């Protein structure tokens, strides 16, 4: 029975579009490269509730950085080879990742405010970058059908490399609740905040409200719109409850 189970597991791995590496195997890819960041710099980069430290950077994110460098270098070589092949004087190479793939010299996007829970009149301007990083919950969604019945383009059609950060839904719900409680003591106390109405809640009331919001809004959004896009990512980082990455899945070429 055990040999049959092992054979089935091996077959599943062979048929998967991803190569899976556990934490130790992935960490070994960092080699002898030292982290370019100090412990203090990493502390400043942490998100609310995040446990990022030197070990996590060394074992997880340095290999990610090395892999991204390979993709960027490869994209540059492909561009030059294609330019030589076409003999048509292609426009300057477009940035790696997105946006501005049309080759425009300058593009702008509205700034989102977590204070007002909406976009603002402020704009962020990007001028011919080499690499652009785009972050968002729903950026890997496939193209939708337009009113005329035709399928348009998806934002992800223009990504060169995508990363999906994955975790057990119970852990995500726990992180959301913890974040809600932390913000209740900080940002929610700003009268201008969209969430100021939650600042006066007791601890138990805040926990109940966080669970209600998660179960009625954020959880369904995760299940219906976010989680289904995981299989479209180039790289999947699977986190444990303590935020450490347990294993990595890299899409096969």
Write up this protein.
This protein has 253 residues and is of the alpha+beta class. It has a domain at 15-93 and 159-251: P-loop containing nucleotide triphosphate hydrolases (Rossmann fold), CATH 3.40.50.300. Helices cover 39% and strands 15% of the residues. It contains 6 helices and 6 strands, in the order H-E-H-H-H-E-E-E-H-H-E-E. The strands form 2 sheets. Strands 1-6-5-4 form a 4-stranded mixed sheet. Strands 2-3 form a two-stranded antiparallel sheet. The radius of gyration is 22 Å and the shape is globular. The mean pLDDT is 85.
Please write out the topology.
Elements: H1 2-15, E1 18-22, H2 23-27, H3 39-45, H4 54-86, E2 106-113, E3 118-127, E4 163-166, H5 169-184, H6 203-226, E5 235-239, E6 245-251
Parallel strand pairs: 4-5
Antiparallel strand pairs: 1-6, 2-3, 5-6
Helix pairs in contact: 5-6
Q: What can be said about the biggest beta sheet?
A: 4 strands, mixed
Helix-strand category: alpha+beta
- Helix and strand pattern: HEHHHEEEHHEE
CATH architecture of the domain at 15-93 and 159-251: 3-Layer(aba) Sandwich
Briefly say what this structure is.
By secondary structure, this protein is an alpha+beta fold. It has helices at residues 2-15, 23-27, 39-45, 54-86, 169-184, 203-226, and strands spanning 18-22, 106-113, 118-127, 163-166, 235-239, 245-251. β5 (235-239) and β6 (245-251) form a beta hairpin.
């Amino acid at each position: 029975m055990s040999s049959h189970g092992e054979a089935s597991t091996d077959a599943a791995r062979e048929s998967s579009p991803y190569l899976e590496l556990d934490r130790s195997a992935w960490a070994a890819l960092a080699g002898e490269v030292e982290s370019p960041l100090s412990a203090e710099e990493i502390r400043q980069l942490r998100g609310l509730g995040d446990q990022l430290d030197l070990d996590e950077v060394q074992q997880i994110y340095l290999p990610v950085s090395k892999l991204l460098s390979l993709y960027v270098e490869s994209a540059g070589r492909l561009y030059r080879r294609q330019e030589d092949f076409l003999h048509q004087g292609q426009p300057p190479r477009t940035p790696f990742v997105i946006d501005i793939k049309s080759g425009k010299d300058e593009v702008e996007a509205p700034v989102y405010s977590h204070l007002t829970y909406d976009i603002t009149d402020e704009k962020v301007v990007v001028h011919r970058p080499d690499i652009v990083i785009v972050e968002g919950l729903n950026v890997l969604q496939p193209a939708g059908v337009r009113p005329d019945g035709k399928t348009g383009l998806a934002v992800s059609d223009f990504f060169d490399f995508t990363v999906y950060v994955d975790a057990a839904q119970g852990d995500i719900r726990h992180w959301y609740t913890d974040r809600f409680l932390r913000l209740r003591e900080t940002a929610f106390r700003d009268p201008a905040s969209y969430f100021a109405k939650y600042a006066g809640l007791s601890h138990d009331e805040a926990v109940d409200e966080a669970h209600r919001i998660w179960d009625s809004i954020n959880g369904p959004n995760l299940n219906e719109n976010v989680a289904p896009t995981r299989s479209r990512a180039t790289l999947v980082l699977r986190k444990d409850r303590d935020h450490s990455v347990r294993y990595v899945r890299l899409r096969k070429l």
